[in-house]
Design a protein that fits this description.
With about 675 residues, the protein is of the alpha/beta class. It has 21 helices and 27 strands. An eight-stranded antiparallel beta sheet has the order 13-12-9-10-11-14-19-17, with helices on both faces. A seven-stranded parallel beta sheet has the order 23-22-21-24-25-26-27, sandwiched between helices.
């Protein structure tokens, strides 16, 4: 307990969930907390000592209440709209305030912020004028000039959408002013400053990753990784400008958060926040650097000093040589029946804090999609280095499951292991390509279909499960590409040929074919039946042979393409109980080399992708029949594989995307291994 603060009264403006955590910290410091908010049921009111139903914008009413309560200090939570009232209340009451009239306006109106930045040589996002709509190059972001809450912001991709977007932005703007800015499709960074007694500390700069779709919804955060890859560039070209701006605005104390894009050596700022950041950067700083900005701000409100810690010793924007991350897990619509893997994550030694928003029995609705209301979990974590961080995040993603009563996992893809949001950004590696995937309704094939569509491809999946196909098509409805389904029984050569005829009729060409379909029943040479052999060879090589035949013929007519035959480490000799499977995969390897060699003259490439030990639906079903759970399988595999874990769908899919894309245009007749070093 802080003896010098014990019994002092702190008034906090706003009462959202993030502010509730500030209240708890203040109470731990022995402070009497008073919260005011227009919402009688606001979360912070439930934990505060005293609460009032007063709108945070009503300065006079707040001042009257503060005088009656004889408050010793005033503080703003995480709401930008309350920073100016906070400054005005403090000024009227003669209490410490880190904002002055100029800085409160500059950091809470996007247009004024942009103008202020320009005075100090800090670039803003290129802007368009409403008076000259004909000059606008789409897509653009339309947003209120004086709102930082995310409300009223629209991604506009076509002129026909502009007027409605402008009207929506004006509704959310207190001054009915609107900004129209270029939609930046490049790297995103988060910049976080701590200012103490006139000394400006860059506390973090991180790389921000977002979920971008092809709808009008603005990108949703997937997480931040610390420190940013652009740290050195920022310190060299931008940091001095920020120091000058803060000094020029007379900022002696406080916390400043700024979002920016990085493109071709330039940082383009777009969103300031002169307060604690709602995403919880202060939790990362506390976990890694050892200082709590909440305590600093509470101390400042009650004493006029933010010098609560020795920041010269503790503050390090490079995280003292460690790697840190905030990871957000988003959910698609559904009712939660069961959650697994969460306790493992919470107890993991790399995790500093977890914030869970949904529990079993609760529903995620369609209306939540495209907003932060679909966030299930935020993890604040740090590791010794980036390699360990990547491995740990991958582990969390594989373990966390939020299931419906039918067993559907509601968790959406989050940060991938390479910290590249490649499938939901403008890279669009497969834009307008036509890709057929056999076996695209389950497992890796399902993930591949979705990622191909997100990367801009027109995807045709084949299989027999109409219900699964319908679900996949629904999930891809907001992607830049599309997914269609052609029901196909791969035992039938006629139906295989019908599949490719359907593709030619619909699109007139074929750019990629992925043979993922396969069966993996277990049987040793001495135990294999004729039926077992025929089933394995019918799907694993005969179907692949005739599908490749049709794919080559269509590619010859349409100018070439890329074929990926998904194989296995079993293709050289295999385990003892996989004789027929090993022989079929060996034949598939020969087929791949044959196509790659003899049809390169037609600009047709073919590569054999060696898929390592992966927890596919078939593998898990087989192990369950042998009495082994998924956790037991993972433990066994981790001990056996050189890289220490199983190969996941998220490991395989990027490799296939690469083989289908033009980036691999000189790659053919190769054995492309993604197997964690597995050798059979």
């Amino acid at each position: 307990m802080e003896k010098n603060l014990e019994g002092k009264k702190l008034l906090i403006l706003g009462a959202n969930p993030e502010t509730a955590n500030i209240v708890k910290i203040a109470k731990e410091m022995g402070v009497i907390t008073i919260v005011t908010d227009y919402d009688p049921t606001a979360p912070a009111k439930k934990v505060a000592d005293i609460s009032y139903d007063i709108n945070g914008l009503d300065v006079e009413a707040i001042c009257d209440m503060a005088c009656k309560e004889q408050v010793d200090g005033v503080m703003v939570g995480v709401a930008d709209v309350l920073v100016q009232p906070y400054q005005q209340v403090c000024e009227k009451l003669g209490l410490p305030c880190y904002a002055n009239a100029k800085s409160a306006v500059s950091f809470n109106n996007k247009r004024i912020f942009k103008q202020t930045c320009a005075e100090y040589g800090i670039e803003g996002i290129p802007e368009y004028s409403l008076d000259d709509k004909g000059s606008i190059v789409y897509p653009v972001i339309v947003k209120p000039a004086d709102s930082n809450s995310g409300k009223g912001i629209t991604l506009v991709r076509h002129r026909s959408e502009l007027d409605n977007a402008v009207a929506r932005a004006k509704e959310e703007s207190r001054t009915s002013t609107v900004l129209i800015e270029r939609y930046m499709e490049c790297s995103d960074v988060s910049i976080y400053y701590t200012i103490v007694d006139g000394k400006v500390y860059l506390s973090t700069i991180s790389d921000r990753y977002t979920l971008r779709t092809d709808t009008s919804a603005t990108p949703i955060c997937l997480g931040d990784v610390f420190p940013s890859q652009y740290y050195d560039k920022f310190m060299q070209t931008e940091h001095p400008k920020y120091v000058n701006m803060l000094k020029g605005l007379g900022v002696e104390n406080g916390i400043l958060y700024v979002s920016a894009f990085y493109e071709n050596g330039h940082f383009y700022v777009y969103d300031p926040g002169f307060r604690l950041q709602g995403g919880g950067f202060h939790l990362t700083l506390m976990g890694v650097n050892g200082f709590d900005q909440r305590k600093m701000l509470i101390n400042f409100a009650l004493t006029g000093s933010m010098a609560y810690y020795d920041l010269d010793a503790l503050n390090d924007p490079k995280m003292h040589g460690q790697s840190a991350a905030t990871v957000w897990f988003l959910l698609k619509p559904g009712i939660i029946d069961q959650i697994s893997g969460l306790e493992y994550i919470k107890k993991h030694p790399s995790v500093d804090f977890c914030i869970q928003r949904f529990k079993e029995g609760e529903e995620i609705t369609e209306q939540m999609q495209g907003t932060e209301r679909q966030v299930f979990l935020r993890i604040f974590m740090h590791c010794k280095n980036e390699s360990e961080l990547k491995t740990t995040i991958k582990d969390f993603q594989n373990r966390l499951k939020v299931l419906t009563s039918s067993g559907e996992n509601l968790v959406l893809p989050s940060l991938n292991s390479e910290f590249e949001n490649k499938f939901y950004t403008s890279s669009q590696m497969l834009k307008n390509k036509v890709v057929v995937i056999s076996g695209g309704t389950k497992g890796v094939g399902r993930q591949l279909a979705l990622k191909c569509a997100a990367s801009g491809a027109n995807v045709i999946i084949s299989g027999r499960d109409q219900a699964s196909a319908d679900e996949i098509i629904s999930q891809a409805r907001d992607f830049s590409g599309e997914i269609t389904f052609k029901q196909t029984d791969l035992h039938s050569v006629k139906q295989i040929r019908d599949l490719f005829s359907y593709v030619e009729d619909k699109y007139g060409c074929l750019d990629g074919y992925v043979n993922y379909a396969g069966v993996t029943p277990a049987s040793a040479l001495t135990e294999a039946t004729e039926e077992h052999f025929d089933e394995v060879f019918s799907i694993d090589i005969k179907a692949a042979f005739f599908a490749s035949q049709s794919a080559v013929e269509l590619m010859q007519r349409s100018g070439g393409g890329s074929i990926v035959l998904v194989g296995s480490t079993h293709h050289t000799r295999g385990n003892k109980d996989r004789t027929a499977y090993a022989c079929a995969k060996g034949a598939l390897f020969t087929l791949s080399n044959h196509i790659g060699k003899h049809y390169a003259c037609d600009r047709i490439r073919c590569n054999y992708l060696v898929m390592g030990w992966t927890p596919t639906d078939g593998e898990l079903a087989l192990r369950r029949s042998q009495g082994m759970s998924e956790d037991e399988l993972r433990i066994e595999a981790s001990a056996a594989l050189p890289l220490g874990r199983m190969t996941e769908a998220d490991d395989i899919v990027p490799g296939i995307i690469y083989l289908l894309s033009d980036y691999s245009s000189m790659l053919t007749a190769t054995e492309f291994k993604i197997n964690g070093g597995e050798i059979i």
